[in-house]
Amino acid sequence: MEIITCTFDKKEYQKIDLEFMLAETCVEIFENYRKYDYREKLVLKALSLAKDLGITSGFRHDEKQVKWPVIVIQLPFGEVSFHMPPVELPYDESNEEDQKLRADKYKEQILKNKEELKTYELTRKKNKSSHSGINWDE
Question: Region 64-87: what's the mean pLDDT?
Answer without folding.
Answer: 95
